[in-house]
Amino acid sequence: MATSRVFFTYEPSLAGNAVFLALFALLIPVTFALGIKYKNSIFSTNVVTGLALEVVGYVGRVLSYNSPNDRCDFILFLIGTVTGPTFICVAVFLAMPQIVAVYGEEFRSWKPTWYSYLFCALPAISLVLELVGGVVSTIQDDSVNIDSGVRVLIAGLAIQLGTLVVFIFHATLFAIAVRTRHHTLDIKFAGIYNSGSFKIFLAAFSLATILIVVRTAFRLVVVAEGYDSSIAQSEILLLILDGLMVLLAAVLLLVFFPGRVLSSSRPQMIIRRISKTPFRPIRPAPHETPSIHHSPTYNTSSVRSSQHHYSPRKMYHPAQSPPQPQRSMVDSEALW
Questions:
Q1: Considering the entire predicted model, what is its pTM?
Q2: What are phi and psi of 295, to 5 degrees?
Q3: Phi, psi (5° rounding) for residue 65?
Q4: Residue 78 burial (CB < 10 Å; 0-12/13-18/19+)?
Q5: DSSP annotation string for 279-303
Q6: Long-range residue pairs from 304-311, CB within 8 A, at least 24 positions apart, any chain
Q7: Mean pLDDT for each 10-residue chunk of the chain (336 residues)?
Q8: Cα 33 to the chain's mean position, in Å?
Q9: Distant-in-sequence, close-in-space partners of 127: CB < 8 Å, separation ≥ 6
């Protein structure tokens, strides 16, 4: 429906937005297939959700070609393109613990407990603020309500950008620790961290993270300047610094899918089971004394001389080799 409020001062490109719509939609089944093949459903689900929201956003832009100032179309565009990358950020955060497991927990600069809370709670808070701020800043025509919604949206994008910066900071510390103390790496994972595919994966993973940071910083500036600012009304900047950045980041994460790279050279560890019953030495039974009722030639002195003086407090061992010590649950030869 037409309103007095102007959302676009230009006519959105039908061809450009349709291309991004088709590319994002094409990556969704690819992500599903990779997640099923490599059994990495959590990572793939987050990427699929982000891609689906990008599709919704570019559907709104394609619809805006015929009605640039339609409120519903603009809401689809804003909510889809703002919240979609948040789920891709979560997918990046979930891949980092797998990288840490390859090199070793001693190189990380964070505790696993607060890592889970920080990089799951903050994206969730950011997502809620982006949704609320995006809706309030578009459904209202009053300038006060619009400004309130914009401030909430800015807060959500700022939290997302801050989380990415903290993530990059700790990832850099981790990389420096691995670089300076590489001689202490666990050799059983050498097949992974020495492989060329893993090194390329790390480069692609880092580049994808930087692309998302560039996109988030750009959208933060756009929202802070206002919907009617020159930077917000530049479609070329939007398609390059927003759409292209997210698209390239998603392609990198799918081409170098974490489940494929990290499982290609996973070492096999042979675990030997041992009995739950503790080892006990065998105690021989004492010699039985012959019955005096059934032997007519019973001689007490001969029986006493042949008896062993058994005491329950003393431990008797058979005349055999001593028991072998228990083996460890993990065969050390199998690990190396």
A1: 0.76
A2: -125, 115
A3: -60, -40
A4: buried
A5: P-PPPPPPPPPPPSSS-TT--HHHH
A6: 310/286
A7: 72 96 98 94 96 98 92 96 97 90 81 81 96 94 92 97 95 88 73 87 96 98 94 96 98 94 50 38 51 49 47 47 42 32
A8: 18
A9: 83, 86, 156
